[in-house]
Amino acid sequence: MNNSQKPAARKEGLVIQEMPDEVLVFDLETNKAHCLNETAAFVWKACDGKNSVADITKLFGNQSGTPVQENLVWLAIDQLNENNLLEAELKADFNGQSRREVIKKIGLAAVIALPIISSLVAPTAALAVTCSGVNGTGCVLASGTSSTCCGGVCCNPAAGACTSTNACPQAAAPPSGKKSNELK
């Protein structure tokens, strides 16, 4: 195993929020939010491009007050790679063992939590819009026709409220001789 590699944590294009027992990282390029548990966060913060994997293992052992297997750090680095949170990819070598075997081996012997990164894709701005006039509040359209607001809710002037799309009347057809995209 090459433990002289010096991983560097990616910082560009990320919004980082440190919490007491975890670090939240939002990737502006992929719209993914990542939650790094305490173990993964420690390893990510120690990836400064100067510390080798062996150095990070020693730092983590000193911080936790218990001996740490280098495979634990490699497991965290493997997950950081997978989530594009390192500047350059490092190939983890678990000495011929599968990741599953390493997790099982570390998990049974570890007093420290396994490194875990939980991720989810955040909605794009268009999907994250907040609708006004929902839950029965009034809505008015100049043309008197209904319009889909968002999220399956439409403005129904006849009812004087926003309703679910199941109860939405059909929008009025454009006057004859005019296409719907023509200006008056």
Task: Kindly describe this structure.
By secondary structure, the chain is an alpha+beta fold. It has 2 domains: 14-121; 130-169, no CATH class. Helices cover 24% and strands 18% of the residues. It is built from 4 helices and 7 strands. The chain has helices at residues 38-46, 53-64, 70-82, 99-109; strands at residues 14-18, 22-27, 32-37, 117-121, 147-150, 153-156, 161-164. The strands form 2 sheets. It has a 4-stranded antiparallel sheet. The protein has a 3-stranded antiparallel sheet with strand order 5-6-7, with no helix packed on it. The longest helix is centred in the middle third of the chain and has 13 residues, at 70-82. The radius of gyration is 26 Å and the shape is elongated. The relative contact order is 0.13.
